[in-house]
Design a protein that fits this description.
By secondary structure, the protein is an alpha/beta fold. It has two domains: about 170 residues, D-Maltodextrin-Binding Protein, domain 2 (3-Layer(aba) Sandwich); about 120 residues, D-Maltodextrin-Binding Protein, domain 2 (3-Layer(aba) Sandwich). About 50% of the residues lie in helices and about 15% in strands. It is built from 14 helices and eleven strands. The strands form two sheets. Strands 7-6-8-5-9-11 form a six-stranded mixed sheet. A five-stranded mixed sheet has the order 2-1-3-10-4, sandwiched between helices. Helix 2 links the parallel strand 1 and strand 2. The longest helix is centred in the last third of the chain and has 27 residues. The protein is globular and about 60 Å long.
Length: about 350
Amino acid sequence: MKTLKRFGALVAATAMLAGTVGTAHAEAKILKFAHDNKLDPFENPAQACTAVFANIVEADTNGAIKVEVYPSNQLGSAAEHVQMVRDGLIQATLTSTGAIASYYPRIDVLNLPFAFDSNAATYDVYDGPFGVALAKDIEATLGDVEVLGFPDTGGFFAVTNSQHPIKNLADFKGVRIRTMSLPSHQKIMQALGAEAYPMAWGEVYAGLQTGVIDGQMNPVPTVTFAKFNEVQKYLTLTNHLFSPYTFMLSKAFWDDLTPDQQRIVRYAAQSCVVASRGVSRVIEASDRGLKGLMGKMEIDALTPEEREQFKEVTQPVMEKHVQETLGDKGVELLNLFKAEVQKANEKQYLTE
């Protein structure tokens, strides 16, 4: 009888333990991850980054963290995603420079035009001392986020328009170009002689279609997947800006992770950045990049002399903007950015 009682107690204890384990598994930490692009990892770097991040986090934590992805602004605009991360409504987002600017104005230092000579140089800058300093400053300013990296948004910016080919400064005159709400983007276009017209991303296609705006600036893959070639005739490979995402995570969520989970999340974020860069380069070389636009648009590239001329009229304007609006800390960040960019550009030309 005592044996039966002991067996019964053992069965009961085992059932309770199984229930506890099942409950713990069911109560996995949920990481809600929102961004503003589609759910195809082969179409855009945002989802490539997110998909790789989610896969590593869920696999390496054995399901202790579950990543829920909300693409295409399902939960709100890109700027609203930033506030949602801060409020703990979602745990992560990839935010553009335009979306984060109202929370962190010093992001504008990234918009020094015609700074980089190659994609490889951008990797060195954002993975190096400047990237570390920028992440720390964002974290200190916002106070409630952890910055895990700076993924690729699709490469260098190009300019499209419906009026005529743009090959020199005179060609910009009178052309109304859509920009983000960033003052720096507007000043750059104005310095080139264009009319800057801030407009929300969701309104750009219709604005181009109806003639409210004549053109816009974005990486070439964005031109392709947004189908701007349907409403634009001319594309100029200006390569004037490189504008990465900022990978932001809720600090409250981060602090609630175990040290091992933090290690996994940081590694997954680093892998996400690498994935965004790889997919961006593949898209650029595929039918979803420049190759896919050939024959659909008239495409021009700047000569080194034209690029230098554009640089000479825009960089001083941008530097003055930083000095006047972003204070000593902004100037300090800009100086570090310029120094690291110069090193990275020079490195690309070194031979053994």
